[in-house]
Known about the structure:
32% of the residues are buried. The chain is α+β, with helices and mostly antiparallel strands. The chain has two domains: 11-90, Winged helix-like DNA-binding domain superfamily/Winged helix DNA-binding domain (Arc Repressor Mutant, subunit A, Orthogonal Bundle), CATH 1.10.10; 104-218, no CATH class. It has a four-stranded antiparallel beta sheet with strand order 4-5-7-6. A three-stranded antiparallel beta sheet has the order 1-3-2. 47% of the residues lie in helices and 12% in strands. Residues 1-7 have low confidence and may be disordered. α2 crosses α4. The protein has helices at 11-17, 21-31, 39-46, 50-62, 104-119, 124-140, 146-152, 173-178, 180-198, and strands at residues 37-38, 66-71, 85-90, 157-159, 165-167, 205-207, 216-218.
Amino acid sequence: MGTPAKGHPDAISALGALADPARRRVYRVVSTSRDAVGRDHVAEALELPRSTAAFHLDRLVEAGLLTTESRRLTGRTGPGAGRPAKLYRRAEHEVGLSLPSRLYELGGRVMAEAIARAAEGVPVREALHEAAERAGRGLAGASDDLGTALDAAGFEPHDDGESGVTLGTCPFHRLALENPAVVCDLNHALVCGMARSTGADPARVLLDPGAGSCCIRVVAAPN
């Protein structure tokens, strides 16, 4: 059983760990190996001192890009079998960095869930709305209000005063360019789910293609 780094790797820290060319080569050796590998294997493959290989391997573990496990490579057990070797393998977690923030993975999960429900006989649009609203409630989490939830999710909300809140970025930008009707419908249901989760009236969430960088406008609550 491997020992993963605590939690998912932070994208910026992970990318920073790979900024060093030698460390990228070390990561490539480990990630392309079928089984976990030891320090000697990496040192020999890259013609590095063992201490240098160990340093880069452990730095990649700290960044959450590799995991470790201990195993005797000889297959022997009992007294005289020697100490287990520290082995490294690529971590299961994915690392991605998007500026501005995008939610493509979430959009894919919503669409997959909607397709599965549609295959069971639920009308496609109804299935999409239900899946997106559930995702929105999960995305809002324990946020105290809709504005906080939108900000935490990377929507970049801007308070435009009496006209309400517009969003500075579309979480599904590339998808919306290719199929705006479906994707904007998904996005609207998603934000409605976030509104319900935070106690805001989902009727305030409007589809407004001219609102700004996103098709959503959240109108101001009545006084």
